[in-house]
Structures are given as C-alpha cells and as structure tokens.
Specification:
Structural class of chain B: mainly beta
Shape of chain A: globular
Shape of chain B: globular
Largest sheet of chain B: 6 strands, mixed
Strand content of chain A: over 45%
Radius of gyration of chain A: 14 Å
Mean pLDDT of chain B: 90
Helix content of chain A: under 10%
Low-confidence stretches of chain B: none
Order of helices and strands of chain B: EEEEEEEEEEE
Structural class of chain A: mainly beta
Largest sheet of chain A: 7 strands, mixed
Oligomer: heterodimer
Number of helices of chain A: 0
Order of helices and strands of chain A: EEEEEEEEEEE
Helix content of chain B: under 10%
Chain lengths: 116, 112
C-alpha cells in the first residue's frame, strides 16, 4: 500500500463542528495531495503540499485548510463542517522528478466523512 | 472545471470483448496517467504516457495520446470480470505545479 495511511477511515460529525483528517506516509515522498470524491465528479483536488510548510490550493479549496509540519503528515481541516462536505476523502503521495514531470501517485484507502 | 473528462461515463461489455475509454483535457500537459479504482478502494496507477509519446502498452492495456486533439484513449483487450472497476485519467501540468488533476471517470462493467 506504498506506506500511506489515512485516519480516521470513517467519521460522522455534526454541522458546524471542526474536523481534521490525517494522512501519514512512511515513504518520504515530497508531494502530498488531498482529494474529495463525489458521484458524478470524480476526484477533485482540494489542496496539495510540495514540502514541509509549503502548500497550495487546488480546485475546490473553499472551506478547507491544510498543514504540513513534517514530511510524513498532511492534515486536512474542515473548520466548520457543512453537509456539502459529506464525501470520501483521499490522500495521495508522489515524488515528481525535479523540474521535469509528475510521476505515479499512490493513494490511501480513503476516509468516508458524513456531516449531519 | 475538470481537466480531464472521460467518455463514456459507463460501459458494459461481455467478458472477452475489448473496452475502450476516452479522456479529453484542456491545458498543456507533461504526461497523462490512467488509474483504476475498485469499489470503495483507493486508486491504483495503471500506466503513464508522456507528452512526446503517442502509444504505450502494458500487458492487456494500450494507451494512446494525441496532444493535438488533447485526448487519450485506454484500451483493455480481452476483458475479464475482474476488470470491472472505475477508470480515471489524470493529467500532469506543464506549469511545474505538479498538480495531478483527475477526470470524472468511466465505470466499466464486464459481464461474465
């Protein structure tokens, strides 16, 4: 499984509460990504990180924040969860060839989040 | 909007037949990748084709890339029931951001 773990795997939370999802890797990959997957939309990029404390927005970043204080961990936080954030969240890791191109990404098993 | 869009959204074929899925994208890329997702699982990388390549093979998979049309196709030959899954294309951008953008996927059902 390329040494990538997401936690929790399932979570039910109430509207308005903060939620943090964790992605942990043991492979020392430089890049880490957070995606959400919804029916009819495929995977949409929320945020990504290209190094410790280096992050950038993806396609659907509103309502989400991220932090990466060390190489191994990439946290996704929903400051105040809404029902529209009910989704399956996937973390991915990769190490792009410097100055060249993306390479294969490895995915975690996903976190199913339900906001009620 | 999605960088990659797959077509068709769903495909149902008989075991032994070939399955073809298409992907279109909008901006310049450095490569295009195909991934597979079994129900409820994470995505698994299948094959990567670079922007200067036109065709690539891996086992029963054949991928083509036409950068002038900004499109790619994935062909699975002699399909098996175990190939039933969703298939996604993903594009690596030319802007050095290393964003990996996925399309909405094709759901493939291979009937025994």
């Amino acid at each position: 499984d390329a040494g990538i773990t997401q936690s929790p795997r399932h979570k039910v939370t109430e509207t308005g509460t903060p939620v943090t999802l964790r992605c942990h890797q043991t492979e020392n990959h430089r890049y880490m990504y957070w995606y959400r997957q919804d029916p009819g939309h495929g995977l949409r990029l929320i945020h990504y990180s290209y190094g410790v404390k280096d992050t950038d927005k993806g396609e659907v970043s509103d309502g989400y924040s991220v932090s990466r204080s060390k190489t191994e961990d990439f946290l996704l936080t929903l400051e105040s969860a809404t029902s529209s954030q009910t989704s399956v969240y996937f973390c991915a890791i990769s190490t792009p060839l410097q100055g060249r191109e993306n390479t294969e990404a490895f995915f975690g098993q996903g976190t199913r989040l339900t906001v009620v | 909007s999605q960088q990659g869009e797959e077509d068709p959204q769903a495909l149902s074929i008989q075991e032994g037949e070939n399955a073809t899925m298409n992907c279109s994208y909008k901006t310049s890329i450095n490569n295009l990748q195909w991934y597979r997702q079994n129900s409820g699982r994470g995505l698994v990388h299948l094959i990567l084709i670079r922007s200067n390549e036109r065709e690539k093979h891996s086992g029963r998979l054949r991928v083509t890339l036409d950068t002038s049309k900004k499109s790619s196709s994935l062909l699975i030959t002699a399909s098996r029931a175990a190939d039933t899954a969703s298939y996604f294309c993903a594009t690596g951008r030319m802007d050095s951001s290393y964003k990996l953008i996925f399309g909405s996927g094709t759901r493939l059902l291979v009937r025994p």
